[in-house]
Amino acid sequence: MVFEYDRYVKGARLASVTRLTRAESQARTRAQLLTTARALFLADGYLATSIDKVAEVAGFSKGAVYSNFRNKDELCIAVLDQIHADRAAEIATVLRAPTADERMRRFAEWAERAIGDPNWTGLELEFAVQARRDERLRQQLADRIGALGALLGAAVDVATDEDYEPPLPRDEAALALLCLGVGLGLFRSIDPKVPVSALVNTVRVLAGMPAGAALRDE
Predict the structure, then answer these.
(1) Going by CATH, does the domain composed of 5-66 fall within 1.10.8.10?
(2) 18 touches 38 (CB < 8 A)
(3) Which of 16-20, 108-112, 116-120 is the least confident region?
(4) C-beta of residue 141 within 8 angstroms of C-beta of residue 131
(5) What is the DSSP string of 40-79?
(6) Whole-number percent of the chain with pLDDT over 90
(7) N or C: which terminus of the chain has fewer CB atoms within 10 Å of its end residue's CB?
(8) Are 113 and 199 a contacting pair, CB within 8 Å?
């Protein structure tokens, strides 16, 4: 995937005719640094992306990066939070569909698009390896794993009929779905032909719905 750094950076650099307050200027700088870091982390990976490179591409000094983020780990956590928020917003849109069948159809389409993105998957895995050596980082990632699991649990809740008793407790179902999603993401980043139907059908079964055909066969 080719990332258009100039588009990200130049768009964020557009000067306003209105004088910004100190807080507004700092917020704009932070947003521009996040946008630049996200593009670099996704394109080149965590280890290959340096604070110096982020500062250079964003058009700031290295000091500007450190005035917003303590280190590269904190910057990457902020980028991952941003990506997770985008994914959560996408799933929230899916769950607003009027019927359970339509929600599942949209969820399948979302899974086909999102799960297995090689840049996103690679960044998540690379940073997880980095974090396992640092107890503070490991705890931060653990908190975020819980939030992602809750999001998938909500997908089951929304798809489940009020009178249906799921075969697994909600927390266990959410963890199972998260593990399945992570595994599929890894496999699909290697072989995009691996279908997402295992995840989609697991959600359907947990919600008391019959399993459907693989998305690619519909």
Answers:
(1) no
(2) no
(3) 16-20
(4) yes
(5) HHHHH-TTT--HHHHHHHHTS-HHHHHTT-SSHHHHHHHH
(6) 41
(7) N
(8) no
Q: What is the pLDDT of residue 48?
A: 96
Q: If you average pLDDT over every residue of the chain, what do you get?
A: 83
Buried b (16+ CB within 10 A) or exposed e, 131-166: beeeeebeebbeeeeeebbebbbbbbebbbeeeeeb
Residue-wise DSSP of 124-157? HHHHHHHHTT-HHHHHHHHHHHHHHHHHHHHHHH
Q: Does domain 72-217 have CATH number 1.10.1840.10?
A: no
pLDDT digits (tens, 9 = 90+) for 188-209: 999 999 999 998 898 888 877 7
